[in-house]
Amino acid sequence: MIMFREFGKAAQGLWSLVIGLGITFRAFVRPQVTVHYPRATVDDANLQTFHGHVELVGKDDEPLVPRCISCGMCAMNCPSACLTVVKQKAPKPTPEEKKAMEEAEARGEKVKKPAAPKDPATFMYDFSLCSLCGTCVEICPVDSLRFSSNIYQAGFGRHDFNLDLLTRLREQGGEPRGAAVSTPISTSDPDQG
């Protein structure tokens, strides 16, 4: 009885070994997926599925102006706290406009104060903190964020990954997706981080 039990365990172990070798053999004969850079580069078809850092999307009619409406939903929902969005302030009225508003208030008329522009004053992104979860891209109500296809993101320190996305959008100048290189923000202390 004990002998049959030992033969059963040996047969089960041998079957497990055969299954493992089968998986290894299938992986061995499968075509290679790894690209050995710089001898070979990734073709554009593979870049469509690559998710690099987050970047702003320009308006359709004005590609240098972001679609962003400064609602801050991306920054509030980011689990890594890597986004900082600052709204623009309303423009101060000129002395003539201020005087006209005071006169209208004195007459009892309803005065409309100048509204702040919707696009952000600053849009900072710390790629060194980002987990690339995509929450900011999904939550944006106006689809103003997307993943870049920049596969050549490199730097010498953490400060090289503090990106000003407004500057990056302006430098892209309406170029196709992934064509521009990220612009790091210079810091006073390069060893910071």
UniProtKB/TrEMBL annotation:
Q: Where is the composition biased (Polar residues)?
A: 183-193
Q: Which PANTHER family match?
A: NADH DEHYDROGENASE UBIQUINONE IRON-SULFUR PROTEIN 8, MITOCHONDRIAL
Keyword set includes Ribosomal protein: no
Supply the Gene3D superfamilies for this chain. Answer: 3.30.70.3270
MF terms from GO for this chain are: 4 iron, 4 sulfur cluster binding; metal ion binding; oxidoreductase activity, acting on NAD(P)H
Q: Does the keyword Nucleotide-binding apply?
A: no
Q: Write out the entry's keywords from A to Z.
A: 4Fe-4S, Iron, Iron-sulfur, Metal-binding, Repeat
Q: What protein am I looking at?
A: NADH-quinone oxidoreductase subunit I
Residue span of region Disordered: 92-114, 174-193
Domain (4Fe-4S ferredoxin-type) spans: 61-88, 121-150
Provide the Gene Ontology terms for cellular component. Answer: membrane
| Bias (Basic and acidic residues) ranges | 94-112
Identify the Pfam families for this entry: Fer4_8
Lineage top rank: taxon: Bacteria
